[in-house]
Specification:
By secondary structure, the chain is α+β, with helices and mostly antiparallel strands. It contains 14 helices and six strands. It folds into two domains: about 220 residues, no CATH class; about 150 residues, Alpha-Beta Plaits (2-Layer Sandwich), CATH 3.30.70. It is an enzyme of class 2 (transferase).
């Protein structure tokens, strides 16, 4: 079974070379495990494309009334014109008033509104045209109204959607088409209806494929944008975005939220004595060790040079201390000259430190990290009042007093 999955994976990656990691393959089928930063960027992109579509439909929908005026009798033209201008007003409202807030469900609502407007128009116009016996050119133009579902499903191709999302969006349109056929059961041209429905399903499949290709490319781009290229930790800008998101959520729920500032001890000696390649290896090893031992849901960001910020949503002060001790117990790697890589660490927590914004929280953790360095390095300073946790290695000197913050 593993060999089959490996073969399928390599074949799939041959179609999308260099875009996805194996762990990200599931993201193409469901958005459930998407990173929060990916979800926020995708939500903004979806809403922007919804607004672009709304602009296009708001302009083009009423213009078709000119064609209707030429070919349809006046009562029918007037009714269709009213529906067209109502739909145009709805599209214009979506364009003007809808904005992204970074929430994926907000983006889903935007898509639902975008597709609901023409779907309602399609059902209403289809029902109206069924009451008229049209011939010649008017019959040909009237038949063109039946192509609206094809346009809608083709439009799915411009959105970076997972397979499950494409199916959810396309299902109401396919169901409406099936219901319209059921309502005309007696006079149904079954070969034509079956062919049209099959074509709708085919267009849905092609649009879904285009959507997951866009999503795969977006995943790769976002990964490159939010990750530090050397250590694969989150970049500083991404860390700031994550801090803002989780701090706001913690404030709303009055939940604990901690950060830890880590700075490798005597890192300059590695670069000066053994070269920057040795320093890079030490940073990569340290990141791998921290990633292996940190809590599920925690985020490690490279803040600059040998400085890292560990973001711990939902962690109170004691939980943060326990998590940091587990990291120190796992070690941060070995120095080129021998001996362990150690770190000076400062902890700050939203509720314990009575902090009102994430910038002040990071600043407190930074100050406490410097206090740990001044106190002898290889130790943790955190809490209110500040507490010092003992060095992780007995060969390192300990201190008996709390370093000032």
């Amino acid at each position: 079974m593993n060999q089959v999955s490996e073969m399928l994976w390599h074949r799939l990656m041959g179609l999308m070379p260099g875009e996805l990691k194996k762990s990200e393959l599931g993201w193409l089928f469901s958005p459930h495990r998407h990173l929060s930063l990916l979800a926020r960027r995708r939500a903004a992109l979806i809403v922007n494309r919804v607004r672009l579509f709304a602009f296009l439909f708001a302009v083009l929908t009423p213009l078709w009334s000119i064609i209707d005026f030429v070919v349809f009798p006046f009562p029918l033209w007037g009714q269709l014109a009213f529906m067209r201008f109502a739909a145009s007003a709805a599209f214009a409202s979506l364009l003007v008033y809808y904005r992204s807030n970074g929430d994926l469900f907000n983006a889903y609502r935007a898509m639902a509104l975008l597709f609901a407007i023409p779907t309602v128009f399609y059902v209403a116009s289809h029902s109206l045209l069924a009451h008229y016996q049209l011939t010649g050119m008017s019959a040909a133009i009237g038949a063109g109204y039946a192509f609206l579902p094809f346009v809608l499903l083709g439009g799915l191709a411009v959105f970076p959607l997972a397979v499950a999302e494409s199916f959810v969006v396309a299902s109401p349109i396919l169901i409406c088409h099936a219901v319209s056929g059921y309502l005309r059961w007696a006079a149904m041209d079954w070969p034509a209806f079956t062919g049209a429905f099959w074509l709708l399903v085919l267009i849905t499949g092609v649009a879904a494929l285009a959507g997951i290709c866009q999503l795969a490319f977006m995943i790769a781009l976002v990964r490159q944008a939010i990750r530090d290229p050397l250590t694969n930790a989150f970049s500083r800008s991404s860390g700031m975005e994550i801090l803002d998101l989780h701090f706001t959520m913690a404030e709303r729920a009055d939940a604990p939220f901690a950060v830890a500032f880590l700075d490798l001890d005597h890192f300059k000696r590695i670069n000066d004595g053994y070269g920057h390649e040795a320093g890079d290896r030490a940073l990569v090893t340290m990141t791998e060790r921290v990633t292996q031992h940190m809590r599920h849901g925690d985020v490690l960001a490279r803040w600059g040079g040998e400085e890292f910020l560990l973001i711990m949503p939902g962690a109170g002060l004691e939980q943060a201390r326990t998590a940091i001790e587990r990291l120190r117990g796992g070690g941060f790697g070995e120095r080129p000259e021998g001996g362990p890589v150690t770190a000076s660490i400062g902890i700050a927590e939203r509720r314990a430190d009575h902090v009102g914004d994430w910038k002040r929280l990071v600043e407190l953790a930074d100050q406490r990290m410097y206090a740990a360095k001044q106190g002898g390095r290889d130790r943790v300073v955190g809490g209110e009042p500040a507490a010092v946790l003992a060095p992780s290695h007995p060969t390192m000197p300990a201190i008996a007093t709390t370093a000032p913050v």
